[in-house]
Design brief:
It is a single chain. The chain is mainly α. 70% of the residues lie in helices and 10% in strands. It contains four helices and three strands. It has a three-stranded mixed β-sheet with strand order 2-1-3. Helix 1 runs antiparallel to helix 2 and helix 2 packs across helix 3. It is globular, with a radius of gyration of 13 Å.
């Protein structure tokens, strides 16, 4: 099982549903419907899952970087929304 090392040093099991939920929430906050972004969210989730499952441990920064890289390629407004959401809940 892949573990995620959080910024505070804690570890938790990798959960790909968290990735998709965060992307979907950012899309809604950016004015999109979940139907508009479902396919893209699944693609990003699957890409990160594939990357994570090759490792015993992955840090949240690597996950964040991958999400943002993919979102900026296809939908910068959702990437900006996701970044704002991430910063808000990081504090």
């Amino acid at each position: 099982m892949t573990m995620v090392r959080k910024g505070n040093g804690e570890k938790e099991p990798f959960d790909d549903d968290k990735i998709k939920k965060s992307i979907m929430k950012a899309a809604v906050d950016a004015g999109y419907s979940t139907d508009d972004i479902e396919q893209e969210a699944n693609k990003i989730k699957n890409s990160i899952t594939e990357m994570a499952l090759q490792k015993k441990e992955i840090n949240t920064e690597a996950i964040k970087d991958h999400i943002l890289k993919e979102l900026y390629k296809t939908n910068p407004s959702i990437a900006q929304s996701w970044l704002k959401f991430d910063e808000k809940y990081k504090m």
